[in-house]
Design goal:
Layout lengths: L5 E3 L8 H11 L12 H12 L11 H13 L4 H27 L2 H4 L5 E4 L7 H8 L5 E2 L3 H5 L10 H19 L3 H4 L11 H4 L7 H5 L3 H8 L4 H17 L4 E5 L7 H7 L3 E7 L2 H19 L5 H25 L5 E5 H6 L1 H9 L7 H13 L7 E3 L9 H19 L1
Parallel strand pairs: 1-7, 2-4, 2-5, 3-4, 5-6
Helix pairs in contact: 2-4, 3-12, 13-14, 15-16, 16-20
Length: 415
């Protein structure tokens, strides 16, 4: 039975007693040398020892990892548990790179295949992207990235049960998240057998917005925003091709708000893309996302403040919108399907018809699959998430003045 709860925007300040106790006890032993060191050379050495492999490949670019570690060590103010989680995640990413390079050399046919056509859900955070992704996952011809695959896209070994090991690892991560942040699932459910954002594949290049959503790393975020993402997306394609081998289908359904900032790069490196832009009243989506970020960052740090989260992500949200609209205006030949949040909630069949219009009508059998999926993924499955602009010291006129260009653009779409 799923425990229902109501989570408020500022509930991130309330942590489980046991977690606070562990952090306090661990920190009190730092003078004994127990503080986890987050250093590139040490992490690389441990990843090589863990996998028994050495080569990262010629395209492994170390600067993103250097930048990230510098920001984490000097800005993020991580708790002892936060440092441990970060260490383990970075080790996992490095190990994935080692295993992938090893397998790409053993099985060159992986990279010789064509990437499937892509349906790219690229709307802002909290605009229905997860709901839409899970709906589209009901189509057996669609290939989605499942959570357990996102955490470990490359097989751990050649053993027959290695997939079970990856699933078990993801299940343990899900359970750990529930323990550390009991209310987080009412904001964004992270279920090991459900679809997940492919930004987790970009994480393996150390070039994604995941760090700035989960930690306070402004220097890294600033560097990333000004850095070409081509190399990251090209590596992501390699991982997608490997995933195609593991579970074939006909097309990819990818989803991450991160993509809105990099649509020009996506156009350059992907062959066939149907862009699906989800829209929602920003007065609802923005405070919901700010709350989500505050909850995420509180898992790693006790220094999270409303002002800090707001200052970074309001500007970032406006920047992402400007980049997305700029791409559409300068690339009118690209195929975009616009999905409005209220339509997705109230009339999902009509939304799906619009998305599938390019391929013909949806069969009755597939429509039944969609509706079954809709019933299984009801809103507020894990409880209610309440949030308001006022929770973050914001007013409607303040936000309206910054996103008027987006409102104007939506008006042109409605004509």
């Amino acid at each position: 039975m799923i425990r229902q709860r109501t989570v408020t925007a500022t509930a991130f300040k309330d942590k489980p007693f046991w977690l606070s106790w562990i952090n306090g006890a661990w920190r009190s032993t730092y003078f004994l040398g127990t503080k986890i060191k987050l250093e590139k050379d040490t992490l690389i050495k441990h990843a090589r020892r863990r996998t028994g492999l050495h080569a990262f490949g010629n395209e492994f670019w170390e600067e993103p990892l250097d930048r990230l570690l510098d920001s984490v060590n000097h800005e993020a103010e991580l708790t002892p548990v936060g440092r441990f989680i970060t260490q383990q995640r970075l080790l996992s990413m490095l190990s994935i790179r080692l295993r992938a390079e090893h397998d790409f050399k053993r099985y060159p046919e992986i990279l010789e295949q064509e990437l499937y056509p892509v349906q790219l859900i690229c709307g802002l955070q909290r605009t229905g992207t997860t709901k839409l992704q899970r709906l589209l996952a009901a189509d057996p011809e669609n290939r989605v990235l499942l959570s357990w695959e996102a955490l470990n896209p490359v097989p751990l070994s050649d053993a027959r049960n290695e997939q079970e090991r990856r699933i078990k690892s993801a299940r343990l991560s899900e359970q750990a998240l529930k323990l550390m942040a009991p209310g987080f699932f009412s904001i964004h459910p992270v279920e090991h057998l459900q679809p997940e954002e492919d930004i987790l594949l970009l994480d393996n290049t150390f070039m994604s917005t995941t760090p700035e959503a989960t930690m306070y790393v402004p220097a890294y975020a600033d560097w990333l925003e000004k850095t070409d993402q081509t190399m990251a997306y090209e590596y992501m394609i390699k991982l997608l091709k490997y995933l195609q081998v593991q579970r074939p289908a006909k097309r990819w359904v990818l989803k991450s708000p991160h993509h809105m900032e990099h649509l020009s790069t996506i156009k350059k490196v992907f062959n066939q893309v149907q862009y699906i832009w989800t829209h929602r009243d920003i007065m609802d989506s923005l405070p919901s996302f700010l709350s989500m970020v505050a909850h995420s960052q509180s898992i790693f740090s006790n220094a999270v403040t409303v002002d800090r989260v707001t200052q970074h992500w309001v500007r970032k949200t406006v920047f992402m919108l400007s980049k997305g609209i700029e791409f559409r205006k300068t690339n009118p030949d690209q195929q975009f399907t616009d999905v409005f949040y209220n339509d997705l909630v109230e009339s999902p069949n009509e939304v799906l018809d619009a998305i599938y219009k390019v391929r013909g009508p949806i069969t009755p059998e597939l429509k039944q699959r969609f509706m079954k999926n809709e019933k299984e993924n009801k809103q507020n499955k894990y409880g209610t998430h309440t949030y308001h602009l006022e929770n973050f010291g914001l007013t409607k006129p303040q936000i309206e003045s910054q996103v008027q260009f987006y409102s104007d653009y939506l008006t042109t779409l409605a004509r």
